[in-house]
Write a structure and sequence with these properties.
Shape: globular
Low-confidence stretches: none
Number of helices: 8
Radius of gyration: 21 Å
Structural class: alpha+beta
Number of strands: 4
Strand order of the largest sheet: 1-2-3-4
Largest sheet: 4 strands, mixed
Distance between the termini: 26 Å
Helix content: 40-55%
Length: 221
Amino acid sequence: ELATPSDLAFGLLLVAGHQRQGVLGWEACPKGDTLSPSTKRATILTGVNHSPVPLSEDSVTDRKSLRDVVHYVPYAIGVYGISMVFLSKAVYPMSTIPSPFRTCLALCQICKRKKVPHPPLGKVMGDICFRLNERALRQVVSEATESAGIGTQPELLWATWRNRGPGTAPPLAVFLDFHRQKLVIVVRGTLDIKDCVSDLGADPTFFDPLGLAGESEARQA
């Protein structure tokens, strides 16, 4: 089936309404409650004997989880390619408002020919001209690695920016993280109209790899 502009507009209105309900529910929470109603609903699992709690700097597990998030965020940003890098450099700091000066500077940086941060050993498919998406991905990951003081750069093994639309695999990349000794598979989220159509036709799928939801929840899914 084809998605018309009216379908997209209606879908956006539904999302806005759902977000509004979340805000109203948050305002109705007792004072001092730091978890939103949607967060509580999402974390209530059958078989879990403790209620959800906010992150704490005194928790070793929470600090480790935050370090993991900070470490892997550059992969998630870089897989969006040149689009995300350009937008992040073309706006005023801590905002989404475009800056004419920063936009011109970002264009100059894109057009400037410079060496790719790592050797181009990985196989890349579906990239645009001058390997801009690959260069942006490598640059984001490389700069984050240097900022963290990590001496060994991750190696890009394989990546694709081909987006064939609904029912197919989205753009993704595979890295070998030597510092963490992990194989990192990063999948791009929504970026273009094909992704929007895929989101509208997506069906929720039960996902519980650790088996925390219990057998009753699994049967209901």
